[in-house]
Amino acid sequence: MSASFASALTAARDAAASQNYPQGVLYVIATPIGNLADISLRALHVLQIVDAIACEDTRHTQGMLRSYGLDRPGSQLLAVHQHNEAEAAAGIIARLQQGQRIAYVSDAGTPGVSDPGARLCAALQAHGLRAMPLPGASSVTSAISVAGCVPPGQTDGGFVFAGFLPTKNAERQAAVQKLAAEPRCTVLLEAPHRIQDMVKALAVLGERKVTLAREITKQFEQVSTHAAQDVAAWLEAEATRSKGEFVIVLHPVELQQENGEAERVLRLLLAELPTKTAVKLTAEITGANRNTLYDRALELKRAAEGDEE
Q1: CATH assignment, 140-250
Q2: Among residues 141, 220, 233, 230, which one has the least CA distance to residue 187?
Q3: pTM confidence score
Q4: What is the pLDDT of residue 58?
């Protein structure tokens, strides 16, 4: 165990042991995405008390556990990955029905987001069993938190998680064209050996801002924002910029800039119809995103009410 974590297990016990950890529950635990210090005290405690730990890669998880001084026998590590998730779920369900506590971890970050775990939790729900989340590190929310995405002319645009795009060039380009029609903040993931192809495909988005976050929480973490058309050149300027795992954040675009016709139609319909009806018809007429139109409609109504005061 690293000396840095020598007191962590004691702190975990003191902070979390008094809480309730029912039997027959799957504990879905977020693990660090690069920096071992990002583990939570509750996660450390639960990893000690569970009867078994389901994980993507047993060797990887064993190494992580040993870093914290948690040396579990191999028989207590259950392989659950994208190729066997459905089959492995049956064994975990049987254990839970016997009253065991089982933890589930992916190789890094929060399970079930871009990693396995969703099918396992769905299978538990179908059998009336409980999955309890232990929140922690997530590359998606980490990147958004520092990207500085401010929806132009909107109060709150939310974000869309698109994950990994297709690897084949034609399919990737088609996917990017669909993203171009999505004005909300959009989050993508990409591997280092495909990042150059990805940013070249994104160049069609022109001036739209793109934030690249690589190696989040690690020693060489880097977060940089550029116009989509300039990202490829920025990457090529230094070889190290293409290394590591990437989170790509497409910044939101202003509705009026993205679709002036949608703005015009929305204003006309709002003058005559209830908000929901105006938004529905505008989306059908122009193809603009309904959620974004609704947010814009509320802003226009608030502005109109302010003018009347």
Answers
A1: 3.30.950.10
A2: 141
A3: 0.79
A4: 95
